[in-house]
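Record format v2
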Amino acid sequence: MSAATAQRTQETPVPPAPPTSAVERVLKARSLGIVLALVVLVAVTAAANPLFVSGQSLRDIALSTAILAILAVGQTIVIITRSIDLSVGSVLGLSAYAAGSLLQAAPGTPIVVAIGLAMLVGAACGLVNAVLVRFGGVPALVVTLGTLYIYRGIAFFWAGGQQINADEMPGNYLGFGTATVLGVPVLVLIAAVVLVVAGIVLGRYRAGRDLYAIGSNPDAAVLAGISVGRRLLAAFVVSGALAGLAGALYAARFGTVDAAAGTGYELNVVAAAVVGGVVVTGGSGTVWGAALGALLLTVINSALPVLRIDQFWQQAIVGALILLAISTDRVLTTRLAAQLRRRNSHGR
Amino acid sequence: MAVDVPSSTGTAGAAAPAPARRLGALASWEATIIALTVLVLVIASLTVDGFGDAGNAVFLLLDITPILLIALPMTLIVMTGEIDLSVASILGLTGAVMGSLWVGGMAIETIIPLCLVLGAVLGAVNGFFVTVLGLPSLAVTIGTLALYRGLAYVVLGSNAVADFPFAHTGWVTGTAGGGVVPNLLLPLLVAVVAFGIALHATPAGRGIVATGASDTAARFAGLATLRIKFTLFVLSGVVSALTGVLWALRYSSARADNGAGLELAVVAAVLLGGVSIFGGKGSLPGVVAAVVLLASLQNALRLENVSNEALTVVTGGLLIASVLAPNVLRAVRRRSASARASRAR
């Protein structure tokens, strides 16, 4: 009896500590892997063509990463809660077209208003997703698969085959797409602000920690008194609003917007998050990782033509990376779990 | 609204227009879908010019074929609680390989079996990641969706192979003896019946349902749930490859983007057919009806010159409605059943 008590008191303090460090170790290994891959890739590509690390090329990479990273941040927030948002590509297209038409109709519109409208459209789309998931009892995968079709259909309906060209957009908006502050593009700064705010809220604030709790164990989250419904609603609305913001930036960067803008983006966005260590079954992952994933995918994309590798390989590489990422996660966590079990069974 | 459940309090009974018993019939979502399908077919033949024509019927069948074929193994996979989003990419990759082998001078009789073997291998890769590594099938098949489609582009680039032998392309689009019965009809019916029997009347089928209902319970009952899932992914690969071959022959065109996005239509049809995304629940007749419903609705709307954009909205709307409607009905039924349950929703 006393032995059992002693064993229990000895064991109790051990388990809580290692799991956190285990998760941290996996994430650290993941980030380190991505950074290493990035360094090697950039070095090899720069050796093949020094222009790859020239100002213009780096700027292009930074701009593409900015838009993908904003989407990946929104996706991460949703995936952490054990949901998924496949409609982001369509939301981007719809909100980009909304911002474009506003600017076309009223060229004097302030930039902030155009961006605000795009984010509002995106948030509304996110709200529809959230309501269907929460109150319809429909799984997020099904809802956002459906709204992927619906939002895209609405965009096509609205555009009616029309395309908003760069010469129909006010100059100040296009200027905003290429503007820089101290040499850093404004779009990149916006993405950085989004990333830092989301990273701090997810990591340090109750609202963020609640999302991890919901994703780790929804039932336990309810019992712990977390208002799961409100948090999920917020997650989807934020994801939608960020997709809307990405749409506004897309319009500013490319100048030309049609209803097909952002088609198929959802695949790259999910890939960026998953490659960055966000686990699709929820409860684990950071926006920093997702942003690193977005950077890696973008650099690969820009390095292929420089390395004279057929552009057709790009999609295959994205797929292979997803599989590699989720498999290494699996192997690492299984090995860590085995280690922990061995350590605990020895009573340490 | 009349409150006719004696035991209920005012708040609970207010939303209940009918006794629980009558709504119980709606538990059979499949019956609703089948009725809806018949309704659409009847209304379309009566009101849409040209819908009932023999020529259009052949077109309708050709339109249905890819989604119907892939929906068969997809139903089984979703029944086990998994999903395969890579089907359309397997279709595209086999089509691309078929095209490049044909350009390379291989005989079509050798190419087709090779393509089916390729499909089995691609399906086995999915199965390996899901069952051996224990990864979520959603993440795995999103990965292979990109990988296989990417490989299709690597194989064929932006080229199209169009000169398949007429003996084969003509058979796929033709009718038996030049009559009104399409050549594809009989093989399709055989496939549907075979899958229906396999799911609903064999031990293997019961094993699939049991795996989806509760993987743990099924394993304790002695079922090799992992082997069941692996086999289904291989089966899905083979059927998708077969569809890829038929697709290339039907349009006389093998391109890397053949069937892009088809996985969404297939999943939409399977869920609309009443299969639960969580596994363990569903029936093949419901799925077949849903495929016919979606295809005939699209066909009829197209004949009425409704734009493709509207069609995508209809598909997406039906997908959500299919899952939403039973839940809403169940909620209504639960409210009518007892006062206590009203608190839950």
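Confidence is low (pLDDT under 50) at residues 1-26 of chain B.
The first strand of chain B starts at residue 160 and ends at 161.
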